[in-house]
Amino acid sequence: MEERLQKIISQAGIASRRAAEKLIIAQRVTVDGTVVTELGTKVDAARHVVAVDGKPIAASEKHVYLLLHKPKGCLSTAKDDRGRRTVLDLVPDVSERIYPVGRLDYNTTGLLLLTNDGALMNGLLHPKREVEKTYVATVKGVIDEAALTQLRTGVLLDDGMTAPARVRVLAQADGFSQAEVIIHEGRNRQVRRMFAAVGCDVCELARTQFARLTLDGVKRGAYRSLTTREVERLRAMTGLEK
Q: What is the pTM of this model?
């Protein structure tokens, strides 16, 4: 099936469609060895060799978009050299090569997207998009006003100052506190480190929302496919065309 050249490049995860158009105009794209500069050019990726800067791109496969409710005790990676369970072990019926969008650490539960759409993955993770992530953290002790103020204005970590977070206390009882935290950065173990920096030890952490998607109706360890409308909204959010 013939498709526009910029769409083929985007589906391969090389660049967004607009960036792919710039590659074509800059004469960096070839089809069967011939430079193509016409933006409306349509190509059958199964019959022709499309290359960017001389490097052939793989024929695109069907895009898969999954929302997983990650449990504890598995890694947010495609494979593990030590043989530990990964999130892909939770989706054994999926034949396409998919990857997690970002990571949740080993003992953090919650919402994790899995896809083979490289352009969308890069867009959701790019700092300039400021895609929001919502967590619920259970910490030992009381989260006092001083700690809340620090979290809301920015916390100095070993890799720099965090952006201001939106934080609200949900409950405090029996020596524990529960708080909702909304951030748009994606540093390693960021929420745990933020609380540690203000003197709070996180004992439970769950991501409840990502890019305005929620876990409604998805049990822990289970997953579902995103709807067409959800995918279109994510693509719009990341600056990708339909």
A: 0.78
